[in-house]
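The material for today's practical consists of a large collection of protein records. An example says more than a description, so a record of this kind follows:
***
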Amino acid sequence: DHRDLHSFPTRRSSDLNFTLEVYHMELTEVTKFRRAVLTGLARFTWQGTLPEHIYDILYSVVTEDSPRVRCCVHKERAVLKNRINMALGLTVGLNIVEASKIALTEPVNKALPIIDVLPEACDQCPIDKFLVTDACRHCVAHKCMNKCPKKAITIHQNRAYIDKTKCIECGMCKKVCPYGAIIEISRPCERSCALNAIHAGADRKAKIDTSKCVECGSCRSACPFGAIDERSNIVQIIQAIRAGQRVHALLAPSFIGQMGFKVTPPQIVAALKKMGFAAIEEVAVGADMTALHETKEFMEKVPARQKYMTNSCCPAFVALIQKHLPNEADKVSTTVSPMVACGRYVKSEYPEAVTVFIGPCIAKKGEARKFSDAIDYVLTFEELACMMAGAEIDPATLASESYINQASGFGISFPLLKGVQGALNHTLEELEETQVQAHYASGLEACLDDMKKLASGKLPCQYFEGMACVNGCIDGPGALAESGLVSVLIKKYASESQHKTVHGDTTAVKAVKKVDMEVR
């Protein structure tokens, strides 16, 4: 459908069966369920009738007549209750009426993990990790049998079989089979995690090791049963707006194109104001602030005090170093991320402000908890779209307001390929300093591998830019639009900026002088 890249959810008759068509790589049934829940919660919270209508979401999304994706309507509703609890930002298993009342009246429980497993949804993946295929030749040597430490392999009717009650999944049989007849099948969630932070427990249900997890969201995207989700604060944000608080929307630079190919930035600003946001800030200004301060930090540290420095704007990448390469943690820039810089600037101007970062990233929700002085809540673009749908606001239909961007083209380009080091090198050039020898890595696996090379001296580099998502921020799990399209639109938007340099008479230059830019 090329009529528009994004059409907002619409209500069919009086029910809550919402659809959200987005120009994206894939729109699965799991995605539809998640968006239906978020949109339903948003609608009733806007109306002030959430507890009274929370079951309307449950019984409208899954009806007796709707197509089954699980064994029965009761199982589907049990899973949906888990999803509602998560969308309310609470523990799964709570009565959803009581949970909705808690979400409306009590502070967010920040002790709960951002990403969690929905116990009712996990299929327990009853797969056999090692499987004998038809390539088995029933050879005479029987190396698979001889090497198995638990004697779990036997021969039946001229073919090897693995007794799953004895198998410990060591993989020795696969290694020694001369025909490669034994294959290894990994669970999708495990395979998606480059940091081995998720595994099957004794009951075969997925378990997330929070000591290893960096909240990147890759497992959520990979699970074909939708058994992994992130907690949301969409209800709490709407409540703050309805209560008349001064709520500021902090838009990540990658917001361009997320609400539709034809939807302009001024229309998105108009939609946010119509929802009740008191002001809209572009985090690209925070990116300029980060570039200014991080350049100064780099000049002071490299090479005088250390061989290299890494960026600090991607929270999942920073967590990777802190949790998996702790000896390199002192090489991470101590300059705050653009999100935090922008939040602190808003708080310095309006101490009573409630700051809501809006972007493509799930890991930012965890970062916001660490920097509660700057950021109160985080929304993904997906959550924002559902929040707009609940308010029955379509930005494509709104008149464009007069709007002038305050960020430089370099700040706007932060989420693009090598965008951070581009801003750093530009700032060094403006200061008549030599440009930095930089390295870029995207995707946690590449980040981890390249950081290990850097730590061992095998990678010549003074500045390491790491991004957890494979295509950088424009491809975050909370994004709506295809990354290639967003990249083109951001480049165009950056080229139109009135500020061609990070320096000069800009908001960022003024702000960085009055805001604490250090991690604390």
Notes: Residues 304 and 390 are 54 Å apart (CA to CA). The chain has a mean pLDDT of 91. DSSP finds 20 helices and 17 strands in the chain.
